[in-house]
């Protein structure tokens, strides 16, 4: 768990971040946010590997989507399995099947700034692994994509209607490109 404060400027009352000093290992990428990880299923990499991935995903999303949140905010990631995610998906979305990622926003999505509790992102290991095998980029690239996807949901982005989906997918593509990850929405990965 890392809690690093690196806000170096402001736009009005909203924090702005200077990523020029970010550590590529991920240790300092989280900025002024606390990222809490819970691993409650077998088969996931350990926290020492997952935390830098989560911090990289958040830093890229923050930078590319210009996310605004209260300094000291918290983000929770739960690395779970298909069975647990199926229960959550059934109980909260009325869909009795596992899915790759679920996001549970922690605050008022209509406020000018998010936080202090950004919310929870829950990932299903078997589904993530299966999708990663089918994708061209591999497990870590797919996991980064899903964490970014979850983060955008916590900040009010959605993909239920075509116009919203275009905006969200465009942001995801830009964020992932900044991480060196190919567009996951391109139909032919060799193109």
UniProtKB/TrEMBL annotation:
Function noted in UniProt: Single strand-specific metallo-endoribonuclease involved in late-stage 70S ribosome quality control and in maturation of the 3' terminus of the 16S rRNA.
Gene: ybeY
Enzyme class per UniProt: hydrolase
EC number: 3.1.-.-
GO molecular function terms attached to this record: metalloendopeptidase activity; RNA endonuclease activity; zinc ion binding
UniProt-listed InterPro entries: MetalPrtase_cat_dom_sf_prd, YbeY, YbeY_CS
Cellular component annotations (GO), alphabetically ordered: cytoplasm
UniProt binding sites for Zn(2+): 149, 153, 159
UniProt-annotated stretches for the region Disordered: 1-31
Cofactor field: Zn(2+)
Species: Breoghania corrubedonensis
Polar residues compositional bias, start-end: 1-11
Keywords, ordered alphabetically: Cytoplasm, Endonuclease, Hydrolase, Metal-binding, Nuclease, Ribosome biogenesis, rRNA processing, Zinc
Keyword Cytoplasm recorded: yes
GO biological process terms, semicolon-separated: rRNA processing
Gene3D superfamilies hit by this protein: Metalloproteases ('zincins'), catalytic domain
PANTHER family: ENDORIBONUCLEASE YBEY, CHLOROPLASTIC
Biased composition range(s): Basic and acidic residues: 14-24
UniProt similarity note: Belongs to the endoribonuclease YbeY family.
Note on how the cofactor is bound: Binds 1 zinc ion.
Location of the protein in the cell: Cytoplasm
Name listed for the protein in its UniProt record: Endoribonuclease YbeY
Keyword Metal-binding applies: yes
């Amino acid at each position: 768990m890392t809690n690093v404060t690196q806000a170096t400027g402001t736009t009005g009352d909203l924090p702005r971040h200077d990523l020029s000093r970010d550590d590529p290992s991920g240790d300092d990428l989280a900025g002024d946010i606390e990222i809490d990880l819970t691993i409650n299923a077998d088969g996931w990499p350990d926290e020492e590997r997952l935390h830098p991935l989560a911090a990289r995903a958040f830093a890229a999303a923050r930078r590319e989507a210009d996310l605004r949140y209260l300094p000291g905010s918290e983000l929770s990631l739960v690395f779970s399995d298909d069975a647990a995610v199926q229960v959550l998906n059934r109980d909260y979305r009325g869909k009795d099947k596992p899915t790759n990622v679920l996001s549970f926003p922690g605050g008022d999505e209509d406020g000018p700034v998010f936080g202090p509790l950004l919310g929870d992102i829950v990932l299903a290991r078997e589904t993530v692994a299966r999708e990663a095998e089918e994708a061209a980029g591999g497990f870590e690239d797919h996991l980064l994509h899903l964490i970014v996807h979850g983060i955008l949901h916590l900040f009010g982005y959605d993909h239920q209607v075509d116009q919203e989906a275009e905006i969200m997918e465009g942001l995801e593509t830009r964020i992932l490109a900044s991480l060196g990850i190919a567009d996951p929405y391109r139909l032919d990965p060799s193109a």
